[in-house]
Amino acid sequence: MKILTGKRIRVFGVVQGVGFRPFIYRLAKEYNLKGWVLNTSSSVEIEVEGEKESIERFISDIKRKAPPVARIERIEVEDSVPNNYRDFLIKESKEEPGYQLISPDIAVCEDCLRELFDPRDRRYRYPFINCTNCGPRFTIIKDIPYDRKNTTMDKFRMCKDCEEEYNDPLNRRFHAQPNACPICGPRLWIEGLKVEDPIEETARLLKEGFIVAIKGLGGFHLACDATNDNAVRLLRERKKRGYKPFALMMKDLNTIKMYCYVTPEEEKVLVSPQAPIVLLKIKDLGDISRGVAPNNNYLGVMLPYTPVHHMLLREVSKPLVMTSGNLSEEPICQDSEEALNRLKGIADYFLLNDRDIYSRYDDSVVFVFDGKPQLIRRARGYAPSPVKIPFKIKQTLACGGELKNTFCLTRDNYAFISQHIGDLENIETLEHFINTIELYKRLFRIEPQVVACDLHPDYLSTRYALQFEGTLPVIRVQHHYAHIVSCMGENSITEPVIGISLDGSGYGLDGNIWGGEVLIADYDGFIRKAHLEYLPMPGGELAIRRPYRLTIGYLFKLFGKIPDLPFLNAVPEEEIRIIKEQVEKGINTPFTSSMGRLFDAVSSLLDICQEATYEGQPAVELEMMGKDIEDDEYYSWEIEKENGIFILRVKKLFEGLLSDIDVLPVSIISTKFHNTVARMMLDVTLLIREETKIDKVALSGGCFQNRRLLNRLVRLLREKDFEVYTHNQVPCNDGGLSLGQAIIGGRAGS
Ligand SMILES: [Zn+2]
Ligand SMILES: [Zn+2]
Ligand SMILES: [Zn+2]
Prior knowledge:
The protein is an alpha/beta fold. The chain has 22 helices and 30 strands.
């Protein structure tokens, strides 16, 4: 007689809603094991008995053969007394204290696509086809455990066929919570129009130049024909969107490759289950309207990721603009009622459906650097997957920054960074912020013991955090320190680093606006070792929108006079006089060490951009002007040491710019300027290494979205044998701040 062995196994990670139990079921059958598997609120629990060797192979297969979207964090195994089970069963979910990881929404899989376009399949052209390997997850879940009754699919009763699939452990749709078919599931329609085939009709409307609002996974897109200049211009006008590039959706990889260069790494990201918008270098715009991405060398492109997209793109057979369905600055619209209301002045038609969206979820945006995706906006496909940090901290709520806000909630060594919330500048976004915090607290069973926020007193996120004062410790974290710790945390660095934090603006410890900072940092604190010299920002915030104010202010401060230059033609006489007076008398003129502002000022000086219609526009256009060929020329600068701090002085840099301005093409000046900034940062980092012997460097802050700067600086640092760390899991811009705040807050609070 064979001797039975019994094991109790617990699997932690993203293991629910991803076809994990059917996978275990099949595996158990394969090895002839008996017992059961079930979902708990924190893990998947398995009890098996059978031959010792089979069990061992079963356990090693769990990790090796897991379903494509599952993410196993760890497996715990203990002995159990055999019960002489007769069969292997999938049991009901069990509620218990604890928490589980939740899968992001996933692009439609190959199997479902095959069925979608197979006329013999019962889901032929059914726009809501999905299975355990794909479809909505996070956007429809209201609570854990992830069962149909806890999702927005609870209002649809499955028909007999769907029910059978749902209950069959060997079926691809076993316990696929959003499972549906044309008989029993969500429907698609065009508001106010009676048409046979809403997809065909939408395609026709788009081809005729109309703007259509399309309800998707986590909100609405505004779509139009990207090759139609008029439609693109109209969309810009109606959406009140100046020059900010629109994202495009293209039918397939081959189409993308007609317009853009695609490296193998970029291709991998495009076709990944996350299917984000990828910034790709333009090869040939061809028939695409210049209005899609004015003054830009890159296109933000994604592949279709829902069944509706696939059907629509096949029908239209042209690239479509697919931009978030919102007015600029407001959050993406979520339900149909809201969209009909808020988008009525923008969209001509609405393609709607009756599957409710529980959570707003924008498209993620990435670019590929060093073969790895760098996130610019982290939402669909990525959130709410946590970032693992190198140690456990107290349960902490970090409220993030003002622009591109995300918040972060922590539990054990997991940091749950929210999806992109938006700019906290209006009541709608603030509500979205507050509601989403409540959702994450509920989903991950987190009750914060510490609250962390920025130092800036006027950020709405700071004000939200300060409400907790008196009940919970509120830790205020300097902006650039939070950036650097964010980068350290996601890279699991535990030793001190030289942190180069370059961005637009952040509240400094001395009341000035910081932004060109080099810090020595660890998790216990930081020392400001270097920064750009302080220069005036005449008119404060106004100088960000009108970068020529910075240029005039900088020149006046550095040289005491303003040379006669072409960029001044854009500025009214009167305003020039006012700016000088503001600088002289210090009226409404804060001082800043910001690197972002230096880029703005140079962009204006070269007459590239005199008005910022979106955040960072002058710097983006300056970057785009640069040459593609390698060139090592650069301007001079000076580094002075004052009270132990290196001050980076830019008078010589401006002298160089001024003498080149009439002589060299803007493309060369731009390249030289980028080279200069990289060299200058390298220089000061070398000086700091000499003093401190630290050779780990962390790069963070919005300026590192500038590929020209990032490339150049990383290369220079590596040539000098620095270990360079950049962001891969959260954005380097303010979307990544909350992670750094959370780590510092969670440690300080313990
Ligand atoms: Zn599927
Ligand atoms: Zn059905
Ligand atoms: Zn920042």
